[in-house]
User: Fold this.
Amino acid sequence: MNTLLNLPISSLNGVGKKRAALYSKLGLNDINSLLHHFPNRYINCSNPLKISQAIIGEKCCIKATILKSEKPYVKSRKMIIYTSHGADSDKNCVAIVFFNNIYAFKSLKIGHTYLFFGKIEGNIISKKIINPMIINPDESSLIPIYSLTSGLTSKMISTNIKQALNLIDGQEDCLPQKLIDKYGLIAFNDALKNIHFPQSEQHLNRAKQRLIFEELLYWQIGIQLIKQQNTIETTKKLTYLNLDSFLNNLKFELTNAQNNVINECISDCLKNVPMNRLIQGDVGCGKTVVAAALAFLFAKSKMQVAIMAPTDILARQHFKFFVKTLTPLGINVNILVGSLSSKEKSKVQNELEYGMIDVIIGTHSLFQEKTNFKNLGLIITDEQHRFGVEQRKKLAEKGNAPHKLVMSATPIPRTLALIIYGDLDISNIYELPAGRIPVKTVHIPSSKRSRAFSYIKNQLQKQRQAYIVCPAIDDSERNIASVVKYTQNLQQNIFKDYSVEMLHGKMTGSEKDILMQKFLNGQIDILVSTTVIEVGVDVPNATTIMIENAEFFGLSQLHQLRGRVGRGNIESLCILVSNATKPESQKRLKIMCDTNNGFEIAEEDLKIRGPGDFFGNKQHGLPNFKIANIIEDTKILNVCKKEAENILSNDPRLELKEHEKIKNNVLHLFSHDKYIL
Ligand code: ADP
Ligand code: MG
Assistant:
């Protein structure tokens, strides 16, 4: 790694221990990270306002020549006010006021002209500019504003960055000249200079282009490196390919989409390299049965299958489904979850190790050190957005190059998926099983809640069931519906003739399990719950879901919750209760009412929340981009994908001298992922 860039920030003049600690708070420790702390906006000072034009109460940039300074005014022990007076070319005056900032005050020289950026106060006759940023008129006209921490100002950061830029002047570029020429990129050092101190808007744009290109290129290279690792050979090939007995034992016909995906997976599992495939499909499209079909073929091919579910509830639900569909076919299915006793666990682990279990379903505990397999052939991860890349890899290390299948119910548009999951092949299930009636969604204010209750009562009288979701468990915050209080209220009042129970994350696995089982059996009419029912839970007789404080949830999350109903062939309703007035919340709720398409919803959610929040950076191996935005910069992204392929096809492990800097930068970007090279 470049040694200059690795120097600590404290090696800059004027950065002592104290300031270095402040930088550290921002996650900035070396020169490189400081240089990559890009401004989050710029103040345009090319057209300063006349003092007469400056609007009271607003921030603006004015130009004034200093006329005189007042004696500091000691207001209290903690507050000294420093005031200078200046005038513009129209001879209009302004007071320049600093609170406790003697340095700024002293830096102003009588007779000199400066630009000031700050908030205007006072009145029409006597305007003041408060704690302004002082800008030299011959500095560039776009002034960088940085994200700060208390004790640091944009000005301090600018000064330090200027010095850092001088330090790296004359350094070789990190990208090969070929690429720079091909795409007309500006040099790295120029880009850094212009992102911090743009000479003009145009320079700024070119700087951004260059830096976005670089960041996305590194990312694509990283992803492709991960993919390369999957090209290890495997001996785990399917030998048994006949699904007849499995299909005969099913209560329904598979959809075309399900059949296609099963076939895609089968052909993957006949190859010399392990399958690494993602199945995307909307809630309720029937991903579990696809998993079961593959588990069947692997078990019949004398290999073990591990299925990882994100929650106990889901693991137990899958277990029941797999027992129902596979046990009659002579396949040994078992479960390994955290709530088992340690004796039970070690029994299951033993049986796994000796190959007595064919299909094991579990949560994280499946993957603790002690769990070993005799002949693990396939790993299936359900609702994979809940798991980190690391977790998936840990499991993959268990077997000897097993096949991997991940299933996600938060589908994203194909073009984007191809790029984001660059390390996976993708199958989409666009079709829902026949006979499904789309869930109707309405948004009501809380004043109409009693009407919603009447509707639910009506449904219960028809022997249907309902979910009510609250954001909180107990009454920690006012004005937020909580499961405990809500349940009590329903039990004591409006639904006292019905069975109302609550379910939340603080309960033990077996408590949750007992409740879910009762709900599934129809012994509970209304289940009041937190989002623990968000993923996967399958009770076809539940036809209403009412979501309190719906504005609290993300779009994809609401869609997941809604997916708990409409799973059979009875008409279902999703009631979003919200008094939110923010246009943003209104918009989200409207999207929910307007569409049932998970792909569309995910796309909107991505736009609203940005990729980082949508995926949860750490979980997904999606890097924390400094400047690129994978949604807005798709064009550059596509180019970078190709160029990354080019680079790696000539130099698969980035060993050439000309790729040395690229290699370092890729490793840096993927530093959370120690497996990359
Ligand atoms: P998801 O894709 O959301 O995980 P599930 O696998 O839980 O969906 O399936 C939803 C429901 O649809 C389950 O009750 C399942 O048994 C049922 N199902 C799956 N495939 C079909 C099909 N081809 N025809 C009818 N019902 C199906
Ligand atoms: Mg599911």
